[in-house]
Structures are given as C-alpha cells and as structure tokens.
Protein: SH3 domain containing GRB2 like, endophilin B2
Amino acid sequence: VRFSWLRCYLDTEKLGQAEKTELDAHLENLLARADCTKNWTEKIYRQTEILLQPNPSARIEEFFYEKLDKKIPSRITNGELLGQYMQDAANDFGAATPYGSTLMKVGEYQRKLGETEREFMQTSAISFLTPLRNFLEGDWRTISRERRLLENRRLDLDVCKARLKKAKVAEAKASAEHELRVAQTEFDRQAEVTRLLLEGISSTHVNHLRCLHEFVEAQATYYAQCHRLMQELQRELARFPNTFTVTPSISAGPSGVAQSAMPAAPHSKAMEADGLKIEEVQAPAAGTRKAKVLYDYDAADATELSLMADELITVYTVPGMDPDWLIGERGNQKGKVPVTYLELLS
Structure:
C-alpha cells in the first residue's frame, strides 16, 4: 500500500500538483557546498593522477592492483629507461671515446633523475592522492547514502501530508495524522544526521589544505633535486674534451683546386680562464664579418668582450666553438661575444 501511495505521489509531484517539503536554507547551502567539494576534488584527483602517471595503461593497471588489494609492482621511470639506453649505447660505442664517455655520464644522471621522479610520485601519492581518494570513496559515499535516505523520508512525509488532505472521515484523519507525526519525526531525525555529516566538509577542507601543502613541499623538493643534479652534470661535462667539431665540406674553387667551404682555421694563442682553454684568435680576413651590436653587454670574465649598443665590431668563428658565441674584435681588443646581441652585416 505504501509503495502504491508513493508511486502515485511521485506521479502527481512530477505534474506539479503535490506539495513538496522544502529543506531549510542552511541544509540546502550545506548540500550545495558538499556537491561543489565532491566535484572539484574529483577533478583535482584525476588530473593529479595524470600528472604523476601520464601513461593511461599504467594508471589502469595500478587501479586494478588497488582494487585487488595487491602491492603495485615497482615500475621503471622513463628517465631511468633513457639512462639505461644511453649507458648501453656507450658500452657499444666504446666508453673511452668522447661520445661514449659523455653518453655514460649523461645516462648516469638521467637514471638519477628518474629515481628522483619515482620518489616524488610515491610521496605525492601517499600524502596527496590517498586523502583525496579516501574522501571520494569513504566520506562522500556515506554522505550520498544518507542523502538518499533523507530524500526517501521527505517523500514519505509528503505522501502522509497528501493522504491527510484526502481523508474525509474522522477515523481516516486520525490514522493519517498519526502516520504524519511518525513521518515528520523520521524526516527530522534523518535531516539532522545528514546535516552533521555535511558540516564535516569543513574538516575535510582543513585536511585537504594540509595535504596540499605537503604536495607543494614534495614538488619543491623534487624540482630542487632535479636542478642540483643538472648543475652537477653540467660541471661534469665541462671537464670533458670538446671534440664535436664538424668536418667541413669541400668544393672546387675558381682555379679548379678543392677548397674548404668553411674558412681556414685561424692561428691562435691559448688563454686560461675558469680552468677552461679559450682561443684568442688571429683570424684571416676571409673569415671575418662586420656586426652591429644591438644591446650593451658586460663581459663575464677576461675571455669575453664587453659591447656597447650600436657600435660596429669584427666577428668570426673557429672550429669547435659554441655556435651561440663568436670571437669579437674591436681594435686591439678581442674576446667572445654572444650571437644574440649582434646583427650580422653582409
């Protein structure tokens, strides 16, 4: 009988003919706040998962391991795999060759970066992802269950109100009034239970705020470690010999004699600066060009040449030199100058 009444009531409610019990404004605000919290927590959780593990197949595998309550197997990171490939290639090319020895060193640091990344992923999963997932799979499910009960109690109450209105005889009215009082009591009790759960969302925000700070701290530590490792790698590579000169192409000159497409290597005298050998170059005229200085530049050390905007200088390069730099010459002054500060003239 109750279900037939309920079905009938729902049909009339859809048509707008039945009176619907409204929740108080405070409870409505709590419900809206809870829905907002759930929706954004879900989005942040999913996107953080993607950030920590971009591979969707790996995420699905980890999901099934969690559901089966099994330990997720350790997975090598892309950085570690790249480092392994570099070191394997170095062994094939010859670890004593310049390319092989550099590959070996870079591969070593790529593996270190990969290990650092794995530590960051594990720390973030524990300190940030797990609390978010616990809310979605725990607290939110409890809240949703109690909300459904509240909605059922509301429908029961509305059915009792409708039944009382339709009662004609005194006996039917008495019975309907009794059912209404019981339904009202159950509705009020369930509304209070739901309200207490929804007010707990404030504690959830406080907990997630603490977890967010821990996540930022983990990120800061991770990026600081990566920066430190890359600085170490740069210092290591600075000690390696720079033997990556390009073999010049050969073309026939006007006289039919083979000539290099690149200018002949100029005579040089070595200077020592910061432990690195820099070439002070006496360049032949054929290899020089004029350049206009675009911006002021202060030399960082004795091997560089300070520049003033709009002045004209002579520039040229030498084999094995960093392509971002040229040798600049102003009168008797010479030194390295950055290409980005120059406009090369024809």
User: Anything to note?
Assistant: Residues 98-166 form the longest helix (69 residues). The two ends are 98 Å apart (CA to CA). Confidence is low (pLDDT under 50) at residues 12-16, 245-286. Strands lie at 250-252, 258-260, 267-273, 276-282, 289-293, 312-316, 325-330, 333-338, 342-344.
